[in-house]
Design goal:
globular
Length: 245
């Protein structure tokens, strides 16, 4: 068994589980169904293709930079411009950075790793209007899912780290219940209707999974100047300007 780690970050993300009608909500962290959908897109599977092999993977996510929820009042018209589409409210997460982990057969994960780096279909963070920043794949780790998510360096943006410099940051960790070691259980469980039986738009079906919540201390082990993650930090100039004013 091995673990594939993914860095899920971008200007906006949207991970829906309970959306109904004209209100499109977002969860506060990436969902298993959303990430499996992204991986299926990467390898070139269409919505009607089978995904049973991907459903056997264990999933967990660490909130390295929780982000902020915003609401968009959404309007749209038909392609010919003659008809108005239903008005809707759509919620997004902005400025969020997550570390997601997938545990399973090493050969399968190697194929997924290669597909994420060279995807057949475009990758997006839960909604098509939410492209990810690079890199998305951080590669494979020879560890359990629980250990891999605890030991990976903190991925938050430099501006977020500076704000938390004076106090140790404890990241929320959300794991499939069967991926948590027996001596680490906290009892903080919740059910989530987040296991996709089918992405077929004519017959979308989802099952439930049990998710355990933990908190873990995280540390930025890498020198920021040598970090390989996205160095684009538009907030740095804003903060410097505020200090000079």
């Amino acid at each position: 068994m091995a673990v594939l780690l993914l860095r899920l970050a971008g200007p906006m993300q949207a991970w829906g589980v309970k959306s109904r009608f004209t209100v499109r909500a977002t969860e506060l962290a990436p969902t298993k169904s959303g990430v499996i959908g992204m991986l299926a897109s990467a390898v070139g599977r269409r919505r009607t293709d089978p995904i049973e092999d991907l459903l056997r993977l264990r999933f967990g996510v660490r909130k390295d930079q929780p982000g902020t929820v915003i609401r968009d009042f959404h309007t749209a018209r038909s392609l010919d411009g003659k008809d108005s589409m239903p008005l809707s409210e759509r919620y997004y997460l902005t400025d969020a950075v997550f570390l997601a982990g997938i545990e399973g057969d090493e050969a399968l994960l190697q194929g997924l790793d290669e597909a994420v780096k060279h995807p057949v279909f475009p990758l997006y963070l839960g909604r098509r209007s939410c492209p990810p920043t690079q890199p998305v794949s951080l590669g494979l780790r020879d560890a359990s899912l629980y250990d891999a998510l605890r030991e990976e360096p903190w991925l938050a943006s430099p501006w977020f780290r500076r704000r938390r410099r004076r106090s140790a940051f404890r990241a929320e960790l959300l794991l499939d219940l069967d991926a948590v070691p027996a001596d680490a259980h906290t009892g903080a469980l919740r059910g989530s209707r987040d296991v996709p039986a089918s992405f077929d738009p004519r017959r979308r079906e989802y099952g439930f999974r049990q998710v355990e919540r933990l908190e873990v201390p995280v540390t930025a082990l890498m020198d920021e100047s040598s970090s390989s993650v996205d160095a684009h930090d538009p907030m740095a100039d804003v903060e410097e300007a505020a200090q000079c004013s």
